[in-house]
Structure formats: C-alpha cells, structure tokens
Write a structure and sequence with these properties.
Distance between the termini: 38 Å
Oligomer: single chain
Number of strands: 6
Amino acid sequence: MGYQTDFIGYLQVLPELNESERTLIDRISGSIFVDRHVTGLRRDDDWEAAQLELLERGPRGWSNWTACPTGCCLSYDGGDKANHMISWLKFLMSTFLVYGAEVQGRAGFEAFTCDHVINGMVVGSRRDNRELYAITVRDNDVEVEMLWPGVKDWSTYPPLAYQEQIDEFRAWVVDQPKVDLPDDLRSGRGW
C-alpha cells in the first residue's frame, strides 16, 4: 500500500508551453480530475509509435504534473498517490521540455520547442509521516530539500483538517457524472 502526498505551489515555464506540449503533459497525467476511469499511462490508439516508446521508458507510476490552460506553469494535478513527482518532473523536462530534450529534432515532435526554462517551488506533505519537503527548480536544475522530518508513529494519527477537506473534495469529484467538454475548453482556449 502506498502513501498519499499533498502538494502546493507551481513551477513557472518560460516561454509558455504550446498547445501540443500542454496536451501531452495533461494526457499522461494520472489525475482523477482529467479521467478518473483510467489509471497509469493514458494512451490513445492514434498516438505515434515514437510517443508511446518514449512514454514507456518513463518512471514508474504516473505523472501527477499538469499544465495550466495558458501553459505558463506546471503544478500538482490533485490526483491520488503522487509518489513519483520528482522522477516524473525530471523525465518530462529531459524528454520533452528543455534545451537538449530527447525529442528535439525528432520526427513527430516538430511542435515541441524544447526551449523552456523552468523555475519555482512545490512543497509536498506526506500523509503517512507528515514529512515536508520542497521540490525547487532554478533554471531547469531540480533540487529536493527536506523541510521538516516525518515521524513514523504519526501514520496512525487521524487526518489533519486540510487533509479531510482534500479527501472530501476528491470523493465529490469521483461521484460527479462524466462531462464531455467542448474542444475550446478542453484545450484551455476557452479560459
């Protein structure tokens, strides 16, 4: 059984991600808010073989990173069991986003600019031991720092107030009927 981690903060992306880059990041997100009926890497039959091959080499679990509708930042998607945020961030950057990314100049990825500079901070709070840590990115350099150590015995304590609110909201989202969004909202252009 895994543990839940809650995250707050964002990573600024300059220049902003284009529509193809945003779509890919959101498509492979493990978020219950994007598609709660599917787990793991999301795949559509019409994906190019090159995209599938790259994603199959990704870290274990799923990415919990999402792009904002304008592409100016990355943040936690709110999904469950976001235990691989650091490895997925490094994978997304080195494979798709920053200068020298694996897809740079590769057929099928002409829309990917591979010229982004990422800066910002996301702070994680583990539910099992309440450890606090920061994922900080400065000019595409990813650092992880423990802010406050966890305590193993705290895993048996009741949830904190904010954790209860997050859990109630997640349960509410899962219970909502699936809605088909118009294309302009799905791509973020309608925001």
